[in-house]
Amino acid sequence: MALRRPRSPEVPPKLLTRRKFIKSASLTAASSLGFAGYGFSNALDLPGVRRVNLELPALPAVWDGLRIVQISDIHAGPYMGVERMARMRKMAMKLDPDLIVFTGDQMDRRSSDAELFVRGFRGIEAPLGVWGILGNHDHFIDPERSEWALEAAGIQPLVNRGVALDREGSTLALVGVDDLQARGGRYPDFSVLNTYPTSFRICLCHQPQGWHQALAAGAHLTLAGHTHGGQIALTGRNLNVARFSTRYIAGPYRRDEAFLYVSRGVGVGALPVRVGAPPEIDLLTLRSTAAGARVAA
Predict the structure, then answer these.
(1) pLDDT at position 31, please?
(2) 208 belongs to a structural domain
(3) What is the tens place of the pLDDT at every residue in 256-280?
(4) How does residue 196 score in pLDDT terms, banded at 50, 70 and 90?
(5) 7 domain residue, yes or no
(6) CA separation (Å) from 147 to 152, 156, 257, 264?
(7) Which domain holds residue 256?
(8) I need a surface site. Which of 34, 181, 190, 202 has the fewest CB within 10 A?
(9) Is 132 inside any structural domain?
(10) Interatomic CA distance for residues 215 and 17, integer angstroms
(11) CATH no. for residue 213?
């Protein structure tokens, strides 16, 4: 899979207002191109599994082969019911991951969406834990209630905090930050990454525009969602709703030895339409170039 190398860190003039973008673009595309039925069906399908190997120069050899399942942008609510989420939970666990991460927007907009999420994902587990952060939609409901929903489902919130995972004396730091649009005295604290100076550092940040801040704080790998891959991607990345507000649309991006991975997610935003941006659960296998060199030697 080809990697895109952005020319400079992204500092957007304003944060995503994806709901407005998707609503206008999806209505136009669906009506003018006759994609309404196809896009609706695509949006409500079970997600596919996108399997990606990430070759990470900074990853210690002992962590080579680490399997991470990323689930993003569920949007539990009118277009994401309990039964469908329960099937996704089973899908994720059958992938035999070492750990599972939820990268925000677990809920859509209603307070009752929190109960739907809990009923759908309660019981999810992985050997190294299941961890989650908040997205902008989780803040639309209420950040405390959204954190409650994570905990009630058995998912450990990582909101401006980190956890150190140990393997044979080598530490991998998993750090989560609050959403870029957090309000009411809440904010994303990327400085938490600095508390793990000798570890390989993975940052969970819902919006990919936060990558430049994660990079500055020392993240080796940043996992994000938020874009839905555009939901409407008529010609790949060239005509894509997400491109109005970010160049980081979907998949892996690299700058020097640091990586960003953006998931298309499993749910939908303003309208239940996906064209050219199918829903996905991501299975990321981390590969250490140091391990390859050791084998070659």
Answers:
(1) 47
(2) yes
(3) 999 999 999 999 977 788 887 889 9
(4) very high
(5) no
(6) 9, 9, 32, 22
(7) 18-291
(8) 34
(9) yes
(10) 24
(11) 3.60.21.10
Name the pLDDT band for 130 (thresholds 50, 70, 90): very high
Q: Is the pLDDT of residue 227 over 80?
A: yes
CA–CA separation, 137 and 181 (whole Å) = 10
For the chain, give the number of residues: 297
pTM: 0.84
Q: 157: which 2 tokens?
A: 């919130």
Q: Give the pLDDT mean for 123-139.
A: 97
- Whether 228 maps to a domain, the answer reads yes
Domain count for the chain, please give it.
1
